Amino acid sequence: AQTVTQSQPEMSVQEAETVTLSCTYDTSESDYYLFWYKQPPSRQMILVIRQEAYKQQNATENRFSVNFQKAAKSFSLKISDSQLGDAAMYFCAYRSLAGNKLVFGAGTILRVKS
Amino acid sequence: NAGVTQTPKFRILKIGQSMTLQCAQDMNHNYMYWYRQDPGMGLKLIYYSVGAGITDKGEVPNGYNVSRSTTEDFPLRLELAAPSQTSVYFCASSYSTLGHYGYTFGSGTRLTVV
How far does Cα B51 stand from its chain's mean position? Predict the structure, then answer.
């Protein structure tokens, strides 16, 4: 079974600075998908970014980008120019290529200081 | 589009009571899921469904039941509520088994069993 590990329970960043959230995963599969979800205090789960394992190019969505290291099974999220609205719990998640279930990490709370 | 609608948003149950958490989606998604999120933890899969009339257990199914009589609705039934079921419950849906599709989540139900 696949597992997802987020080793940072909490992180803090100064407004306008850059922060990186870590995620590692364990799988024996060669093709899969990885996601980062944001959960603000409203509890709504919001998809931030996705990465296909067969693509070598790292995904980017505006201020959010990932560093995908397939051999190391690492999938970190970089948030540039951090904003107060970025404060939330962030979850890393894994999904098999043809699977229909997301496996989540335990989450990282991101605090943004003004 | 309403997306995924969960009701109620909050509920307090006494030990031994039963209740049904409602989930409805209007996106014609075949795949629907129930997750629970315990404090400081990631989401764990309770049950999922790949279409009307088809359901299957996830990681933590004990104490719960589901049914899927229509594409739109996927209710979660708690029988004989226990304090260990105090959690936030999320319903989600997905268009396809193709992994690059993320999930659409409801806003969650916060359940307290006392």
Answer: 15
